[in-house]
Specification:
Blueprint (H helix, E strand, L loop, with lengths): L14 H12 L5 H15 L12 H12 L10 H18 L5 H15 L6 H14 L7 H14 L10 H10 L4 H17 L3 H14 L5 H16 L7 H4 L2 H4 L5 H11 L2 H10 L3 H5 L3 H15 L5 E3 H8 L6 H11 L2 E6 L4 E9 L4 H31 L5 H13 L3 E3 L1
Parallel strand pairs: 3-4
Antiparallel strand pairs: 1-3, 2-3
Length: about 425
Amino acid sequence: MPTADSVSVFAEGTFEEQIQELVDYATRSSPEDERATASQSFRDIIKPDEGAKPIEEDQERKRNALTFVLDRTKSLGDGSEQEIEGYFNLLFSHLLTLWPTNLPEIKHYVSSLLGVLTSSPSEHPSVRYRVISNLFNATPRNSALRLPIYTALLKVAASNGELETLHLSRKDVEQWLQEWDISAEERSQFLKSIVDAFIQSGQPETAYHHTLSYVSSLSSSSPESQSAVVDAIALALRLPSLFDFDPLFKLDAVVSAKDHELFSLLQVFLNSGLPELHSWLESHSAALEKYGKSLERKIRLLSFASLGFAHVGHDLPYSEVASTLQIELSEVEKWAIDVIRTGLLSGKLSQTTQSLHVYRSSARTFEREQWEALEKRLVAWKAGLASVLDVVISAQKRGNGSGVGEVVQQVTQTGESVQVDAA
C-alpha cells in the first residue's frame, strides 16, 4: 500500500453530516434562495431509494454527494483562516478516500481545487500554504498528483516572494522525482518550474543549482536542450560568486551544444586565462553586455587560483601574479584579498618578500594534470614524514627533547604541502 506523510483530520459526525457542513460553508455567501436550493438538491442526492443501502455503504452516492460540493467550491469561502483550512482538509480527506489517485476524475477535481487555491495568491497566503501542503502530505508518496500539487505551492510562494518558507532542497526534489509515478518529460518540466520560481523570486544562485538538475534531465537531442544549456551557461557566467564550472561542463547536454558560442567561452573559464578571454571577446563583441560585465573579474580570480594551485606550500611572487592577471604590482594585494574572500585560495601575504605563501588553492577542474600534481605532493609529503620519523628516532636515542622544535617545524612544512582541493 502506498505510504503518505501523516496528516490528521479530526471530523465529527456521520458522512452525511460532514458533507452537509461542507455544503453549508460552500454556499454561505450565496443569496438565501440559492442556499435553500442547494440544501434541497443535496438532500435529494443523499435520500435513499426504497430498499437502497445506507449512504455510508453506497460508494456511488457518496461520490455524487462530494461531487456536489466540489462543483460549488469556487473560492476560499467566507470564513476565518481556521474555517478555510478545516473546510479544505475535510474536502481533501473525503476526495482521497472515495477515488484512487490514479483515476482521471480525481485528477480533474484536484486540478480544479488547485486553481481555486492559487488564484489571488496574495489573499490569505499563509492558509493557502497550509492547505496545499496538507494536500501534498496527504497524497500517497508515489502518486503523480504530487506533481501538480507542489507546482501550485511553488506558484503561491513565488508570487508572494516567500520561497524560503518551503525550505526546498535538491535532495528533496531528487527523492520526490524517484518516488512519483510521472514521465521523464514531466520530471523535466517540474525542474524547470523550480528554476523559474527562484528566478522570479530574485534568487539566481539557488536557481542555478536546480538548473543543473534540469539540464541533466533533458535528452541531448530534445528541442528544449539547446536553449536550456545556453541559459545555464549564461546564468553561470553572470553569477559573481560562482567559480565552479566543472559540474556544468560535464553534463551531456552541455557537451552536445559545442557549436554554440557560449561553449567556447565556458572552456575559457575552465582551462584558460585573460588573454584567451580577450581573444574570445574580440570575436564576439556583444557578449560582454549580453552575458555580464563581471567576466574579466571572474577570469582573473580563477587565474589567480590556478597560480596558487601550482604553488601550494610555496611562495607565489607578486610579480608573477601581476603578469598573469595583467595588473599593476600595486594592485596584487587587493586581488589577493579578493581571491581569499571567495574561498578559492588561502595564504599569507608578505610585503617584505613581495610574495603570497599559499596554504591551499582550488583547481578549476580535476583531470589527469591535477591528479599528477596531487601525486607529486603526496610523494613529497611521504618523504617529509619519513624525515620526521628519522628526527623522532634520533631524539629518542639521545634521550632528550632537543629535537622537538625540529620535529614541529618539519610536520608544519609537510602538512602545508598537500592542502589542495577542487573549485
